[in-house]
Every structure is written in C-alpha cells, then in structure tokens.
C-alpha cells in the first residue's frame, strides 16, 4: 500500500534527479530538503526531550522513594510519602473495565455495519458512533457526573453490589463515583476508536471467504464466526490495544468520576484514583516535592502507555504489511 | 456448540438441506446481539447530545457569550468569554506552530525520506506520539517552560502544538502519497526544481486532504483539558498576555464548573459544554466537507 509513492527517487520514471538546477537554484533545493528533514526530526527531538526533562524532574522522588514509589500503597504528600500503587492499580482497573465493556459492543456494532445493516442505515449509524469521538473528555466528565451518575452508574453499582456483593470485587458500600463509574464512561469514549478500526478490519476480509462459508451451508452467524472473525483477530487485537492506550491516558473524565480516594480498594464499586486523574486533581495544591512526585507518576504512565501503543502499532503495521 | 459449526457442512450436509433449528436460533440470537450492540452504542450519543442541548441552551444567552464569570460559583450570570478568548488564542497559536512543521515533516517523509531509517523512525514515533497521554505533554511543558517562565497562553499553545503535530504529520503524509507521480514528472519536465514542484504542485493538489487533517487536529486541540491545567492554569478574568499570566480556556472553565457544588456554576458549565461542543463539531464538519472536496482519493 505504501510502497509505490515512496521511493520516488529510486524509480526510473521519476525525473526529480534531473531537475536539480545549478548555482543558486541548487542551493535553494538543498535548503528546502534540509528544512523538511529538520521538521521531521523535530518529532524525535521533542519526544526525547519530553522523556529526559520529566524523568530528570522526577529523579529526586525516584531516588528518595526507590522501588517503593511504584510498590507503596501510601500517598501522603503532607508527610512526604509517595507510593503510587493505588493509582497504577486504578488506571489498570478502570481501563480494563472500559475494554471489557467496549470491545464486545464495538465488535457487535462493526459486524452489524459490515455484515447486516441495509445500506441506507450504514452511513447514519457509523456517523452517529463517530460523533462520540468528537466529544471532548471534559464534556464526558460533566455529563457523566450530572446525567449518567444518577441515571445509571449509581443504580447499576448498587445493583451489582447487592447481587454479587459476596464477591470481594463487588463489595459494598457501592457508589457510582468509583472504578466502575469511570470505567463505564471510558468505555463510551473508546467505543468509536475500537469500532472504527474493527469496521476497517472486517471490511478487509475477502468476499471469497464469505461466499465459501455460505457455499458450505453456513448460516450468517456461522459465516461470521468461521470466516470473518478468524481473519480479523490480529486487527481486533490492535484495535483493542489502541482503545486501551487511550483509556490509560484519559484524564478529565476519570478525574471527575473515579471518586478520588487515595486508598486502594479491591471492590470496583468503591472510589479510587487513576494516575492521570491524580495529576490533574492535585497539581494545583501540590508543593515542590509533590509536583516532582506527580511528574514521576506521569513518567510511569508514559512508560505504560508507550509500551501498549508500540505493541498495538506493530500489530496494525504487520497487518497492513500482510495485505 | 461445536456440532453446529459451519464446517460441519463437510460432514455431508447438502446445500438444499435447511440448517437445523438450533443453528437457526443461534443465528437469530447472534443477529439480535449485534443489533443490541448498535442500540447500546447509540444510547450515549442520544443522551449526551440531548442533555448538552437541553441544559446548555437553558443557560445560554448573550451575556454568557460576552461576559466573564462572577468571582463566586454561587452567583448567577456572567459567562465564559474569557475561556473562549483563551481557547481561540491558544488553539490559534498552536495551529500556527504545528501545521507548517507538520506539513514540512510529511513532505520529508514522502518526497525525501522514503523508506530510509530516519523516515521510518519519524513515522513510527509520530504514531507513538499520538498515543502519548495529553496530561504527560502538560507535565513536560510545565517542567520545561512553565517553571522558568510562568503560566500563560504560550505555554498552553506549546502543549497543544505538541499534541497536534503528529496528527498533522500522519494525515498529511497519507494525502501526499496519493499525489500521482505523473504530475510531479510533468512539473520536472517543465524545468521546475524539486522545491518548486513540492510547493506549487504537490501541496496544492493535496490541499483539501491536508485541510481535513488540520481541521481534525484543531478540533482535538480545542477540546483538550488536562494539558491546559498544567500550562494555562485557568483564570476568572479576561487575559490576553502571552506569557506570565494564567489564562482561561473553555475546557478549563467547564472542568471547574463540573466540580462546583453550586447550581449557578454548574449551569455555566453546561452552557460552556454546549459552546465547546458546537466549536468542535463545526471543525469536524468542515473537515468532512474538505474531505469530500478532495479531487485525489483512494
């Protein structure tokens, strides 16, 4: 897909090599080429600079806390104790909840759009789901707190706790401002991301495979399960990881909905915190050491999301390369 | 379940044979589940837009669009014009910084770099950068620029431009790749140098597509909140200084309103959400219009 247009200079048909004039024109051409190269390299420079500056700022906290920075469960800025495990835990739990909810829904929507929907319905449904991606996260937060919390999150959290309360992960007292509440809103935010990619992945399944399944007498669902899903698995994994990457770094909606408790809780219907959320919520009142600790949280968050994103990109790239 | 797999057709099912009742029901249940997924996914769309429009319009008026908020979240009246000014300033500056750099970077990827190591690295790390949490970008700008120079519009714009640049790079690259080699060759044949060909032929013919990417990046930047908390900080008064003075933005004002227990502050947050969503959707729609105007396409 990307091969043809790229190495223009190497292709016999490209005349650009002949087009280098003399004297001033030639210098100008070289200057232009270098300008573009410098602009491109800026991406790498900024990324490197971001990592170095933040790590350097957080270094005093990293050295004074040592490994207990990421394994400690006590976050007491007033006493200079910085253990961020509750926030790492909260980030992972809320993102996992989001993915567990969003993936089946996104896959269902994408299958409906590619396999079932009459053509007049495809455009409007896809457009409406894509609209979710345009909504800013602070709007999700506002809507989550004042609409979804009383309408769904609070009753759902209480219902989960009253039915499955004997399990530690649903133990009461239940509140909508919890890992669960933040996870549900995150799920809504990543559905458009996952479903947009899943749609592309399903569309790429060759028609021959579908027809072959039908020819063997498969029902539509059997065709989907035997022809579409197996072909799409790597792409779906990539899409899921991109959604997960987005959920891990999401800040404002989680800051408003996660309940803001610095204590770790096994129950998902109780309040907690995430890494991004505590940075946003505590930044304004933190002292100098506290800010270094928050920057440290940012560095750990960056490392986690970068790993997930690089893995996702490699998955998606390999998929594109295979086609 | 496995007995009903499609491939049991291999075990001697004939084409004329109707699927067993169990297989038909599985098919119907699966169809129902897919339709249910669509309804579940559309529900939040309806609920979000319904409440933003209802609550937002209830609190929206001329005063809201033209006044700064009162100094107490309890008091009614006032508006988010300070946030609107801040958002326009910061997104505007960020666009001016990130768009030319992003387009030049994309030109490098397509016209100069090709598949060499530097181009591959830039491509990969721009993709990675689009996934960097925006709050981390805010922390970086805070430690690198806010600590020495103070909060301000320029700091917020710096953070937003770091978020926008990789989006512009990747979307512009996709568009430049679609420009046919023939028209470049025609330009060279007329004696144009490479830089002339890029500036006068390649970029103009890819312009609608590039515009789409830029507008989407602007829409994304306008809605960002987390990096601005750390760089612009927020303010209740109208400020226009570039450096040294905290400045408001619509998302910051909404975030404050969403955290206040007072009805008046919350009402302003709803109106602000309406205003912000309208701005973001206008840019998203313009992006679609630009995309449909594109003369080159896949």
Descriptive overview:
- The complex is a heterodimer of chains A (323) and B (298).
- Chain A has a domain at 88-283: MetI-like fold.
- In chain A, 74% of the residues lie in helices and 1% in strands.
- Chain A contains twelve helices and two strands.
- Chain A has helices at 3-6, 23-65, 68-71, 85-116, 119-134, 137-164, 179-203, 207-215, 220-249, 252-257, 275-282, 288-322; strands spanning 75-76, 81-82.
- In chain A, strand 1 and strand 2 (81-82) form a beta hairpin.
- The longest helix of chain A is centred in the N-terminal third of the chain and has 43 residues, at 23-65.
- The relative contact order of chain A is 0.14.
- Chain B has 298 residues and is mainly α.
- Chain B has two domains: 2-43; 66-297, MetI-like fold, CATH 1.10.3720.
- Chain B has helices at residues 21-59, 62-66, 81-113, 117-130, 134-149, 153-177, 181-189, 194-205, 207-223, 226-231, 250-259, 263-293.
- The longest helix of chain B has 39 residues, at 21-59.
């Amino acid at each position: 897909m990307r091969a043809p247009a790229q190495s223009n200079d190497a292709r016999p048909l490209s005349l650009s090599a002949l087009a280098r004039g003399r004297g001033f024109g030639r210098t100008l051409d070289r200057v232009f080429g270098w300008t573009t190269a410098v602009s491109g390299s800026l991406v790498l420079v900024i990324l490197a600079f971001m990592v170095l500056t933040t790590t350097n700022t957080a270094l005093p906290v990293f050295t004074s806390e040592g490994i207990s920075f990421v394994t400690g469960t006590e976050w007491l800025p007033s006493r200079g104790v910085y253990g961020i495990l509750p926030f790492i835990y909260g980030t992972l739990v809320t993102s996992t909840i989001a993915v567990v909810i969003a993936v089946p829904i996104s896959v269902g929507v994408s299958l409906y759009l590619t396999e079932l929907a009459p053509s007049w319905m495809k455009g409007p449904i896809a457009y409406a789901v894509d609209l979710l991606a345009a909504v800013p996260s602070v709007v999700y937060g506002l809507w989550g707190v004042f609409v979804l919390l009383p309408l769904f999150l609070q009753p759902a959290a209480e219902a989960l706790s009253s039915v499955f309360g004997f399990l530690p992960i649903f133990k009461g007292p239940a509140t909508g401002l919890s890992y669960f509440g933040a996870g549900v809103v995150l799920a809504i935010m990543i559905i458009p991301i996952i479903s947009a990619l899943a749609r592309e992945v399903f569309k790429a399944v060759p028609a021959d495979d579908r027809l072959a399944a039908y020819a063997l007498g498969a029902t539509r669902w059997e065709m989907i399960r035997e022809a579409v899903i197996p072909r799409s698995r790597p792409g779906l994994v990539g899409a899921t990881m991109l959604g997960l990457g987005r959920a891990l770094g999401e800040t404002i909606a989680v800051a408003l909905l996660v309940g803001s408790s610095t204590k770790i809780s096994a129950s998902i219907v109780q309040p907690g915190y995430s890494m991004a959320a505590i940075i946003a919520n505590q930044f304004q009142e933190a002292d100098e050491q506290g800010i270094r600790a928050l920057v440290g949280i940012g560095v750990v968050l960056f490392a986690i999301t970068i790993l997930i994103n690089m893995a996702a990109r490699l998955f998606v790239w390999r998929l594109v390369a295979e086609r | 379940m496995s007995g009903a797999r499609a491939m049991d057709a291999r075990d001697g099912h004939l084409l004329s044979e109707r699927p067993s009742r169990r297989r038909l029901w599985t098919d119907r249940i699966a169809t129902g589940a897919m339709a249910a997924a669509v309804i579940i996914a559309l529900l939040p769309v309806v609920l979000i837009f319904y409440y933003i429009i209802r609550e937002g319009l209830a609190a929206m008026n001329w005063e809201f669009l033209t006044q700064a908020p009162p100094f107490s979240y309890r008091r009614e009246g006032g508006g988010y014009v300070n946030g609107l000014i801040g958002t326009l300033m910061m997104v505007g500056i960020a666009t001016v910084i990130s768009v030319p750099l992003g387009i030049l970077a994309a030109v490098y990827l397509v016209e100069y770099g090709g598949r060499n190591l530097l181009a591959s690295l830039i491509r990969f790390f721009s993709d990675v950068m689009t996934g960097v949490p925006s709050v981390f970008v805010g922390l970086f700008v805070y430690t690198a620029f806010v600590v020495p120079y103070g909060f301000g519009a320029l700091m917020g714009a710096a953070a937003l431009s770091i978020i926008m640049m990789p989006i512009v790079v990747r979307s512009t690259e996709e568009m430049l790749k679609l420009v046919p080699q023939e028209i470049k060759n025609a330009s060279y044949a007329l004696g144009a140098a490479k830089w002339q060909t890029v500036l006068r032929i390649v970029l103009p013919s890819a312009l609608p597509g590039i515009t789409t990417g830029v507008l989407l990046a602007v829409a994304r930047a306008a809605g960002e909140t987390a990096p601005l908390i750390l760089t612009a900080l927020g303010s209740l008064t109208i400020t226009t200084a570039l450096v040294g003075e905290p400045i408001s933005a619509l998302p910051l004002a909404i975030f404050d309103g969403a955290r206040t227990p007072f009805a008046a502050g919350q009402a302003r947050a709803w109106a602000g959400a309406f205003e912000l969503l309208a701005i973001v959707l206008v840019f998203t729609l313009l992006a679609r219009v630009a995309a449909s105007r594109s003369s080159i396409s896949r």
